[in-house]
Write a structure and sequence with these properties.
The chain is built from ten helices and 17 strands. It is an alpha+beta fold. The chain is globular.
């Protein structure tokens, strides 16, 4: 097993950067308080008794004293959670790096603030990922070319490695840019930052744009009542949608939906023509499939649009959708599928997939291959699925 102490620091930092991780360094960072603040702000459950049972205090106690130790540690954690201050500012120093100069944009970039990068944290026996919501407003080091030449020479002397001293507040959950996925993503806002060399001398002090002004990497604020998928909306009359579908794609077919407890009927065009399945012809690039679910009054309450594309990078998918829909509420990467979500959480039964996320709007980047078509050197097709549910209608129904 390779020990990290055997790896040169600049090599280790490069490896972590490749993985989208940034190495926290130094002492004094109150990780436990950051995590408790996150749980208080988001109301995400944290079983303090289970945490207490795994604590150092419980492990040190004898079998006889262990129940009292667990009780005392639980009380301590409950007190810390109840008094956690959402306005508290934390300070962390991480090992970071600075990119090469971008001659077109006239700037360098700070690696930690690139999409997909995060600071890993572990507390209470769980893994957390710290991301910065206003990273887009802190990332750039703009500089005229002549000044940049001198700055670049200094960076080369430093191996382009710096210490990034970040002051931040915890503001919520999830990466609004959609680049960091999974459970327990701690959303923070940078309030100030300094880049330092090994001796602690200032290399650069970034200008910080607050998250509210950054508009989540350049996109608009998401409004579920105004959202559309490929121009289609929920809350409209089925007969109007039927006419539009017939004009664009051919006559839609009506049938019974799978979920008759929620929906009365289904309106679809080429419903299964976008998914590659064993035993049928492979879907063709450019294929479009639309499925709408209707209530008893023949109103569209859910609509799904699918389209098959030649392979393209998931980063294009992420950037395009963040630009259209704004800050991402949740994101999941399942290997062959990358899913982004916007809007409120809904009943899992209403979504395209009952796996998370369960937001009113979800976008799915899916490898479109069946078992028989796997292998070889050909790039796979990509199936993009946009699924929108009428959140107001759904919230008013009890199943």
């Amino acid at each position: 097993m390779i020990q990290t102490r055997q790896i040169a620091p600049h090599v280790l930092i490069a490896i972590l950067a490749l993985l989208g991780l940034v190495w926290a360094q130094g002492t004094g960072f109150d990780e436990e308080s950051v995590i408790l603040t996150y749980h208080k702000i988001t109301s995400e459950p944290l079983d303090l008794r289970v945490v207490a049972e795994r604590s150092e205090a419980a492990r040190r106690a004898s079998n006889f004293d262990r129940p009292d130790a667990v009780k005392g540690e639980t009380a301590r954690l409950e007190g810390l959670l109840s008094t956690a201050d959402p306005n508290r500012e934390f300070v962390i120093t991480v090992s970071d790096s600075i990119s090469q100069y971008d001659h077109d944009r006239g700037e360098f970039s700070i690696s930690l603030f690139m999409p997909g990068y995060h600071v890993p944290m572990q507390s209470f026996g769980q893994q957390y990922q710290l991301v910065f919501a206003n990273a887009d407003g802190v990332r750039a080091i703009p500089m005229p070319k002549e000044e940049a030449r001198v700055f670049d020479a200094r960076l080369n002397q430093l191996g382009r490695q710096v210490s990034n001293e970040i002051h931040f507040r915890v503001i919520g959950k999830g990466d609004p840019a959609g680049g960091v996925v999974g459970a327990r993503v701690v959303r923070a806002e940078v309030t100030s930052a300094r880049l330092l060399d090994r001796a602690g001398n200032a290399v650069f002090t970034p200008n910080v744009t607050p998250f509210q002004s950054a508009k989540a990497a350049g996109g608009p604020a998401f409004d579920v009542t105004q959202a559309d998928v490929a121009g289609f909306r929920v809350g409209v009359k089925a007969k109007d949608l039927e006419g539009t579908l017939a004009r664009l794609f051919g006559p839609p077919q009506r049938s019974k939906p799978n979920r008759t407890d929620w929906f009365a009927s289904k309106l679809a065009v080429n419903e299964t023509g976008c998914m590659s399945m064993f035993g049928q012809d492979r879907s063709k690039v450019g294929a479009v499939c639309v499925t709408a679910l209707l209530d008893a009054d023949d109103i569209v309450r859910s609509i799904r649009v699918e389209r098959v594309f030649p392979w393209f990078d998931s980063e294009v998918f992420r950037k395009s959708l963040v630009q259209k829909y704004g800050a991402v509420a949740s994101a999941v990467n399942r290997g062959s599928a990358f899913v982004l979500g916007w809007g409120p959480d809904l009943d899992p039964r209403l979504g395209y997939s009952q796996s998370a996320p369960h937001n009113a709007l979800t976008a799915h980047y899916v490898t479109n291959t069946d078992f028989a078509s796997r292998g070889g050197n050909a790039l796979p097709q990509m199936r993009i699925v946009l699924n929108l549910v009428d959140a107001h209608w759904a919230s008013g129904r009890k199943q």
